[in-house]
Each structure stands twice: as C-alpha cells, then as structure tokens.
Amino acid sequence: MNSINDPAADPGHLIAAIPSLLHSSPQEAFVLLLADAGLIQQHQVYPLDSAPHVLFARIANQIRTTPADTAYLIGIAAAMTGPAPTNTLAEMPGAYRALPRAIANVLAENGIAAGIWGTPALTDAAPWWTLTGTPRTGVLHSPSPLTPPPLPVLAALHDPRAEATHVFATDEEFTTHLDAALPAAQHASEDRLAAAIRRGTPDQHFTAELDTIRDYLTTLSSHDGPAENDPEFATEIARICVVLRCERVRSSLYEIVTDPRAWFGPHTRDNVDLVLWGLLVTGTRDQDRAHAATLLALALYIRFDDIAAAEVAIDIAVHADPHHQVAPAVHEAIRQRQHPADLRAAFTHIH
Predict the structure, then answer these.
(1) What's the CATH number for 11-139?
(2) What is the CA radius of gyration of the chain?
(3) Which of 24, 78, 187, 258 has the most crowded CB, counting CB atoms within 10 A?
(4) What is the residue extent of each domain of the chain?
(5) pLDDT of 225 strictly over 70
(6) Where are the alpha helices (DSSP H) in the chain?
(7) pLDDT class of 150 with cuts at 50, 70, 90
C-alpha cells in the first residue's frame, strides 16, 4: 500500500493550521488537502450532511482529478470515538466509520501518500488521533516562531503591509552604485569558476562561494565592514549578488534560510541574513532581485510567521522575474497559507 501514516512533521501543527488555511473553522466535516512537491494545490471541506456513499464519491472524484503526491484527510466530529487502551485506532462516528479506510484505498490506488487523522474540534490542545495505519495521538498546537533580535531592518516588519513595502522599496542611489560594481564582480566570479574547473575542483568552488556569503554575514554582524556610502560596500554586495546567480548556491540557501542557525559562523548574529537579503532587494533589479526577495520571503514566513512582510517580499520576487524557478511556487504557498513547517519540509527534502 503506497500510503504513509504521517507525511507531516507533526500532524498537530498541520491540523491546527486548518482555520488559517481555510479562513474558517469547519465542524462535523472532512477536510481534504492535496499537495504536490510539498505545496498544497487543493483544499476542500466536505460536511457530514450527506450519505456516506455520496460523500465518498465526492472525495474520491477530487482525489482522482487533482494532480498530487501527498494527501491529508482530517475528520472533525465532536462524537469521534478515541482509541481504546488496547492500541486500536480512533473512529469517525456512526455511518462514517468506514470512510477513512475507503479513502485511504483510493489514495493508494492513485499512488498518493496519505496522512489520515481525526479530532473532535479545531481548538487549542484538542486531541488528534490516527484513523488509519499505526495508532498515534497528540494534541493540536502551533509551533513557537523564532524571536528576532531588535535589528533596525526588522523594526518595521511587524507593522502593516504598507510598512513592509516601504522597507523593501528600491533605493535608486544604492542600485546605481551596485549596477556599476556588478560587471567586475561577474567577471571575477567567472574567473574563479574557470580556475576551479581547470584544477578539477568544481565542488570545492561551490562550497567556497557559499562560504563567501557566510563570511560576509559575520562581517555584517560585527559592523566592521565599510559604510553604505563607501564604494567598497557596493563592491562587497555585488560579489554576494553574483554568487546568488549560481543555481547550486541558491538551492543550498533555500534550505539553509529556513533555519540557518547551525550554518552561521560562531560570531554571526542571529537573523542577520535578513539584513543582507533586504539590502539586495533594495539594490538589485530583475532576476537578481527575485533571488534575494525569494530568500527573504521564505525566512520571514517560515521563521517569523510574518505573513504581511513575506507577501510583500514574494510579490516583489514574482514581479521582478515572473519565470523565476522557485518564486511562483513560494508565492502560491504563502497565498494558500501553507503551514510554515510544511514549507520548511518541502525545501529540506527537495533542495
């Protein structure tokens, strides 16, 4: 059977996020979430007001007509029977008792991994149980977001969307300085890559390029670098910008940015990477701006649950480069209010 009991890191987080995702709190219903490549593509609520065979037909049709590799089915019923002490499964009430197993079979037939759970209510600390597979239980709860330090660039991110728009607006003077520095930075980057290829050490080259960003974050933390009006500042930022043009480096950063604490150097301030991504957003154009804005949006959404600022950042990314490899998918995930833990898992597993 091509089905797993728990595709989410913690079912309690996912189930608790349903009201935010749907902008409502369903009662006496099944909620079906269909995901592909870690992103929720379809969500539907099926009230328990139809005959079981009609409800089954509707859910099965949705599964068969929506491209997906993972499904989450949550049964919500106040009269749900919790598992007995003998390690049995919880059950939906009355006539709906057999539906979870029947739907699990449809998911298996379509090659879709499934997590199927039940809860009496979408309220804090309510219990959840597995309805198929291995018996498990827990409580509904939301993860505690990481607390950002009082960095100036973050000060406005907890204000309304208009404040975030102001913070991330293009700095024309800085952009002009960066434009002038980018050609030399690009040429130097190509020279480094060519030398690494000649030496037969391309892997070490990409590691060194990623380390360039980490080292600069340490410099940024110590405030020992050049001032923003110093020409050397544009030169340093231009080098970082060019490093981000490497797809291999970006792929690593998409995972790192979701929780960079283990990657940071020993003298790097927590969350200082947001300062760097913010600088790049305000000073770059087109695809370069999309790269930085996507990293910024991921960090804001996953690490701080700052939806307004993340929306502004990812809007900037898709407008800067509508054909960006990652930004449109992140834009959809944020628009659909995908749970931050699931978005983090997508980049951890995929990238």
Answers:
(1) 3.40.140
(2) 24
(3) 258
(4) 11-139, 152-350
(5) no
(6) 11-16, 18-22, 52-65, 99-109, 161-167, 172-199, 202-222, 231-243, 247-256, 273-283, 286-304, 307-320, 327-335, 340-350
(7) very low
* DSSP calls for 261-323: TTTS-TTPPTTTHHHHHHHHHHH--HHHHHHHHHHHHHHHHHHH--HHHHHHHHHHHHHH-TT
Surface-to-core class of residue 279, CB atoms within 10 Å of its CB (0-12 exposed, 13-18 middle, 19+ buried): buried
Whether residue 280 contacts residue 244, with contact meaning beta carbons closer than 8 Å, is answered with: yes
Amino acid at 160: P
Torsion sign over Cα 48, 52, 57, 61: positive
What is the Cα–Cα distance from 122 to 321, expressed in whole angstroms?
A: 39
State how far the Cα of 319 lies from the Cα of 184, in Å rounded to an integer.
27
Mean pLDDT, residues 56-65: 90
Structure tokens given for 187: 């040429």
For the chain, the farthest-separated pair of C-alpha atoms sits apart, in whole angstroms, at 73
- Alpha-carbon distance of 237 to 184, in angstroms, equals 12
Pull the structure tokens for residue 262. 């283990």
